[in-house]
Amino acid sequence: MSKFIEIEQITKSFAATCALNRVSFNIEQGSVHALVGENGAGKSTLMKILVGIHQPDSGRIVLDGKPVVIASPEKARSLGFGIVFQEIVLCPNLSIRENLFLGAEAESAGILRRAEMEKKSQTILNKVRMSLSPKTLVQELSVAQKQMLQIARAILYKPRLLIFDEPTSALMQDSVNDLFAIIRELHQEGVTILYISHKLEEIFEIADTVTVLRDGKHIGTVPIREVNEGRLVQMMVGRELDLSIRRKEVKPGAVLLKVDNLSAGRLEKISFEIRAGEVLGIAGLVGSGRSELVESVFGIAPISSGKIHLGGREITRLSITERAAAGMALVPEDRQLQGLVFTMTLGQNLTLPSVAIGLSSVGKRALSRSRENSLGHQAMQSLKIVAAGLDTEIQSLSGGNQQKAVIGKWFLVNPNVFILDEPTRGIDVGAKAEIHRLIRKMADEGKAIVVVSSELPELLALSDRVLVMRGGKAIGEVYGNKLCEEEIMKLAVGSIG
Fold first, then answer.
1. Pairing relationship of beta strands 279-283 and 448-452 according to DSSP bridges
2. Region 3-237: CATH code
3. pLDDT of residue 238
């Protein structure tokens, strides 16, 4: 393979923060090149420089042996550079076809060529294994389907370089397999792939070369066959980490959460309970009803029948704020849309539940500014949130620190039942290890923890028991010496062997 893109001494700073410091490496033509590092390592900044969102302070990019200035996303597109962002960037009120061609509609003399766009849309949907009509509204799609649609849109413009930023963060294994098949097809067609992921097992499966960034610096670029996972983690974080260590067996206490014959939407008569000191994992394929279940328990989605008890008290008809005040917390699946308020500062986000509960209580006692600041600093220290201060804009934080803020805001109201839906999605191994430590610590302190995760190794490392969902039903529990990936997947996919 020959040199395709040469990144030479790229430096980029934002105020006093140096995001990239004289980074240099090459991307070979037709390769699948992985880019890894902790949140804040500089991956996103470099990616945005390649697609024209940011401009480097110094250094240059050489394409096909010639220096290029990528002054805008339009320029990047003209060079054949495409990107699939981790966060969903789609218009929910438009159809699949309208999203695919948004800003690049086929037309003649001002008249849209709808039939042509419809045909091309169906072709590209077939390519990404989506059995949907181009007329389907995006708001009707699951998170996983939206992510596959973003991939379809990027492929539609036939890029020479396609950047994937955490593409599997919203996908279960069956969809991940489809994505990898697509990447291999693109690779065979000569498309160069730059693949960014915190899931190291994916890097070893799909990449042929890996570049490691740490603290804005280039640590190394090596053929994937020359490193193992342990060495790669050391390069990324500067120390050894093991995320596979299982929690020690515990003796659970009193029942803190009891769900009895809950039905809601397509959920059918689901029952389970969790005791103090336990971590209950919830597994299932995309569309199994995992998120719908925890949202119904927390009061986001209405239930049609069944009862919910929290600490022996029935809370079935309580509001979300009342459930939070009674001792329940939910960290939602999508921190961008449901977990954070991006018009607020870090401090305001951290104290939001405390303020809401205080204002809803008898007497409507608002938090004083000094108390609010005290609570915010407490959360920053407990979760090791890296930020200049409480007045930092939440959108300026790395993904890992944003996720810590989503969790940290609930720490301050001290819930007895903590529900976490995909708590480590899209964050680096260091932040993931820290969140795993926090989950174990909360359980050890007598909290009841519910963890929904698409990553079976994560569930196995954290959970005492795993409840498996399929088709809106709780199919069964896996625990004890049967707690393994094979047993979970048998239930999740309906295998009886």
1. parallel
2. 3.40.50.300
3. 67
